[in-house]
Amino acid sequence: MPLLSISGLTVRYGAIQAVRGIDLAIEAGEVVAVLGANGAGKSTTLKAIVGLVPWGGEIRFDGEALAGRATEQIVRKGVTMVPEGRRVFPSLTVMENLTLGAAACADGKAMPRNRAEVFELFPILAERREQRAGTLSGGQQQQLAIARALMSEPRLLLLDEPSLGLAPQIVDSIFELILRLKQRGQTILLVEQNVAAALDIADRAYVLANGAITMSGPAAALRASEQVARAYLGAAVEAAAP
């Protein structure tokens, strides 16, 4: 049984249908990428999973239907989302942000252990634990946003455009971090416009266009697809050409 299964998902914003009947699944321990251009319905799909937008169809987590569940209930079941744009609490310190992230953890005694683990993953946050989040760099804020999500011990981590707006060298470090999480067995659903980088670390991927899935399959197969290369990897291919 997939950890997450989605069937016939639809989302409307007034007269606009943002997601058009998509089917998607992710097994425990997988990294699955959802790819596509701006406006394809990628972020809306993540928001539907955590109950932030009204939706139709069926979403099941660990076999249990999520219809009618509040976002807080979904988070407590083990689904945590790192939203686009990081959205840390700028006036709070790194430690205070992490403490808030632990609020949804079912085991209240696990916070010291989880904090030690995220400080191991993010040494810069350990160094700056008493610094206000708003004074961190963009890359450090992204690390904090992911660390805060991990404090709740998620069984499924939803990452929405984690590389957006970051310098290239920082983007590389973020994807290295995602790879480390994968190696630790973390299940991740990754929405990302950096198609090449996402396909390099994902097990499988779905390509969305105009709210519908146009392609899906193993990441390596999509990486080798001429259609994907033309649509999303053109700049990378041209840069690599002699």
How would you explain this protein's 3D organization?
This protein has 242 residues and is α/β, with parallel strands linked by helices. It has two domains: 154 residues, 3-Layer(aba) Sandwich (Rossmann fold), CATH 3.40.50.300; 69 residues, no CATH class. 39% of the residues lie in helices and 25% in strands. It is built from eleven helices and ten strands. A six-stranded mixed beta sheet has the order 6-7-8-3-9-10, with helices on both faces. The chain starts with a strand and ends with a helix. The C terminus is likely disordered.
Name of the CATH class of the largest domain: Alpha Beta
Please give the CATH architecture of the largest domain. Answer: 3-Layer(aba) Sandwich
Tell how many strands the DSSP assignment holds: 10
The general outline is: globular
Major β-sheet, in short? 6 strands, mixed
Q: How many domains make up the 3D coordinates?
A: 2
Counted by DSSP, the helix tally is 11
The proportion of strand residues reads 25-35%
Helix content: 25-40%
Q: What is the succession of H and E elements?
A: EEEHEEHEHHHHEHEHEEHHH
End-to-end distance = 47 Å
